[in-house]
Amino acid sequence: MGGDHGPHVTVPAALEFQARLPDVDMVLVGLRDALEAELAAHGAAAGPRLRVHHASEVVAMDEPPMQALRYKKDSSMRVTVNLVKSGEAHACVSAGNTGALMAISRFVLRTLAGIDRPAIASVLPNMRRTNTYVLDLGANVDCTPENLLQFGIMGAMLVSAVEHKERPSVGLLNIGVEDIKGNETVKRAADLLRSSGLNFAGNVEGDDIYKGGVDVVVCDGFVGNVALKASEGVLQMVASALREEFSRTPFTRLAALVALPVTRAFRQRMDHRRYNGASLLGLRGIVIKSHGSADVFAFGQALERAVEEVRNSVPQRIAARMAQLQVPAA
Amino acid sequence: MGGDHGPHVTVPAALEFQARLPDVDMVLVGLRDALEAELAAHGAAAGPRLRVHHASEVVAMDEPPMQALRYKKDSSMRVTVNLVKSGEAHACVSAGNTGALMAISRFVLRTLAGIDRPAIASVLPNMRRTNTYVLDLGANVDCTPENLLQFGIMGAMLVSAVEHKERPSVGLLNIGVEDIKGNETVKRAADLLRSSGLNFAGNVEGDDIYKGGVDVVVCDGFVGNVALKASEGVLQMVASALREEFSRTPFTRLAALVALPVTRAFRQRMDHRRYNGASLLGLRGIVIKSHGSADVFAFGQALERAVEEVRNSVPQRIAARMAQLQVPAA
Q1: Do B173 and B87 meet the contact criterion of CB atoms below 8 Å apart?
Q2: Do B173 and A238 make contact, defined as CB atoms within 8 angstroms?
Q3: Is the confidence at residue B326, as pLDDT, over 60?
Q4: Taking a C-beta distance cutoff of 8 angstroms, is the pair B90, B310 a contact?
Q5: A271, A282 in Cβ contact below 8 A?
Q6: What are the distances in angstroms from CA A217 to CA A40, A146, A148?
Q7: Helix (H) or strand (E) holding A28
Q8: What average pLDDT score do residues B229-241 get?
Q9: Which residues of B are less than 8 Å from A227 in CB distance?
Q10: What value of ipTM does the predicted structure carry?
């Protein structure tokens, strides 16, 4: 029900997804009438492989998370997370209110042993055309060194699971690569990461996110969120500048026509929709957050991410790694 | 003497600058032989309008700032800042070690009354093709709400001085625009900014830096530095992706040729060299930090920034505004 477009996006995305991956069963959770109407609008109907599960309430996009948690016990979001808890679903994918999804998931599913706080992890593109996983992207605005260590472990386990890398490299986001740089939290986090047994690559800087030198970039949620949004802002500015320059004169408009296959390939390569689907890591279950503005293609990417995490047992891997941890997790 | 290229960049940049602005007197500070050789290499010589001031030491780019401050009393950096202190120079421009420049400037010049810590402010481009001033960009990794308030005042005074705006708008970098978002420091800083008499626009997010909705974006140095570097990383990735797509096949290489005037205009527009020259604000004197990798063009931009700040009395304006401040500056 969530996101800017609700079932108008999620339902066709589910149909399209199931057409591609027919071995995945799906449950659409929300207002039955709205979901069935949307299915009918696409010439489809619910069935054993694509069930509709009624939930009478919807969490609003701007609703305070604690309010959603306390008072909307029959929201589509809560009911979906409950399905994960009970084992009826292997994963939950939502385009709804991020704070509410985090609060509900944490309350219902609980965190894994040794994990103090879940984190939001997302994939970003890089110059080597591999994936850089960054966490936390906004769930935790004040992190301890222990939190950052746990993010490193969760990120490494996510990458080892879905990218099939044995020892993913983990960098700690800082304002210089030297050990003496940064605030006290980051310096102590570096010490913890160094003795964690992870493949710790030391400090990295903001531009390293896009260089592809490390698989995982660890940071607190405030910094991660700002870095992500600033990056989006730059991309928007670049796109708008390119558009403007290409539409300046008749000649540049002709050049735009000639360059169309190139700019199209470029746009596709930079298409943020391909990276849609952030993981709420550290929970006893799989929860994927789609961007609220996701379209059918983007929401499909989030669904795929959920399936990847299920097939590769991401929470189990994190739990196993936490159990081995020598450093006490505060 | 500083930066990646030393006098090979700074000396020709000074010559080129003085050719453009002949009413600006310049003092080249550093190893006399190196400076005079570089002048001679450009068919120039020192004179009353372009003096060489000998300094026997050079601060290394990777030297610990405190070491430079304590033991290199005759470094080109220290001597230049001394010239500002004594009034022999109106401003100092350096491409050297940022930490050392900040430590020396703070020690020699002192901060203005009410300013606890200087900040590094820089101009960034935005979609409205105006300038966004962001501070702090890395001088202060742990800021109090009072520091952030002071950054807001300093940024606003800088913009009012050099952009001739009467009431520049100030945004506080946060991870959401709602008042409840962010950590405690940011929330308290918002309260201080709201009652400061500044034109406070509330919280802004990372992408707002590039939207141009506010003139000044205030943040702590850790967050600002990461946002800036992440932005640089995205731009590099975009540039490299565009290059790759344009050189993929004979057809795309032809398209590149046709689109050359467009991509050239685009590159020029996105050229970070135009924004070179960060202000060390809050000092009793004008100090401008050029990027270490600056070329002659970029270093010239930093020189221009220094002249702008001198002509518009930036430190005096900050001092005057601080004197009016009702809120006690802790």
Answers
A1: no
A2: no
A3: no
A4: yes
A5: no
A6: 44, 15, 10
A7: strand A26-30
A8: 92
A9: 206, 226-227, 230
A10: 0.90
Of B142, B240, B259, the CB nearest to A258: B259
What tens digit of pLDDT does each residue of A212-254 get? 999 999 999 999 999 999 999 999 999 888 889 899 899 998 8
**CB within 8 Å: A262 and B254:** no
| C-beta neighbour count of A240 within 10 angstroms | 12
Nearest CB neighbour to B141, from listed A183, A206, A265? A183
> Do the beta carbons of residue B81 and residue B287 sit within 8 Å?
yes
Q: At what angle do helices B260-269 and B221-246 cross, to 10 degrees?
A: 170
Residues B101 and B276: their CA atoms lie apart, in Å, by 16
Which H helix or E strand runs over A237?
A: helix A221-246
Peptide bond into B136 cis (omega under 30): yes
pLDDT tier at B269 (50, 70, 90 boundaries)?
confident
- Cα gap B221→B229, rounded to integer Å: 12
Position B325: which residue type?
L
Nearest to B150 by CA among B132, B168, B170, B179: B170
| pLDDT, average across residues B300-324 | 95
Written as six digits, the tokens of B59 are 């601060």
* Contact residues, chain B, for A261 at CB < 8 Å: 251-252, 255
pTM metric for this prediction: 0.92
> Which tokens belong to B222?
């850790």
CB spacing of B255 vs A262 below 8 angstroms: yes
pLDDT in tens, A74-108: 999 999 999 999 999 999 999 999 999 999 999 99
Q: What is the pLDDT of residues A289-324, one digit of tens each?
A: 999 999 999 999 999 999 999 999 999 999 999 998
The bridge status of strand B199-204 relative to strand B50-54 is: unpaired
d(CA A75, CA A71): 9
A267-280 mean pLDDT: 89
Q: Do B237 and A127 touch (CB under 8 A)?
A: yes
Q: Which DSSP symbol is given to A74?
A: T
